[in-house]
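I have been asked to look over a protein record a colleague put together. Alongside the sequence sits a line of tokens, each denoting a local backbone shape. Please read both lines and tell me whether the tokens look consistent with the sequence. Take the sequence as given and treat only the tokens as open to question. I have pasted the whole thing underneath without changing anything:
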Amino acid sequence: MHTAKVLWRQPLPSRPRTSDRLHFLAARAVKDHLAVLQEMADGTVTLAVHDSRRGKELWRQSLDVPAPDAIRGMLEVDDGQVYPPVGRLRALDLKNGEEKWSFGPGRAKARTGPPALGGDGVLAVEEGFGLIALDWVTGELRWRAPGRSGADLDVTLPPAPGVGEVYAYSSKSGLLRSFSIRTGKAGRTRKARGDRFYAFDGIPEAIVAVGEDYFAAYPYS
């Protein structure tokens, strides 16, 4: 038996032994970068990016997060940008944390929910309007689901991109709605229950719902 070689090590913030805070709410690695959502000892949340080869912290930003546990597992990263799950819908440069674009300047600032990447774009729910898709490079609006067909969608949940469609949930109506991932055209609806949804291209193809004390699968068709 061989002892694993330590490539790098970084200390975590100290906290009381009785603390139930999580050190990490989410983490994503892309090429040479490791992005992490980290809950600090005082309950604040920071977004930090490290060099994944050496562990060196490249940059760190504080996020305004009223309930840290609500964004556990919510972090989207691509080859060059990271998309914070709270606040304005925006893209930050992986290398230095500089804002590349922000959705909303010059218009009424409706709240947007956590983003998801799919269909070569950035997807999110816009409060009072429904599902939207942005160009990931420029942040320009590609489409907004027509006819306010998703005006009641939960703004606190990220969409679930699937094959050709994206799914979003309304806890008010108990409906899981599907939309064309290319155009935003509304598709089927189905009765469903869950706190988070995930789309998988498997056999059988299904939407997986996760709740407080269960998980379930709903067929695509």
Q: What stands out?
A: The mean pLDDT is 88. Residues 2 and 8 are 18 Å apart (CA to CA).
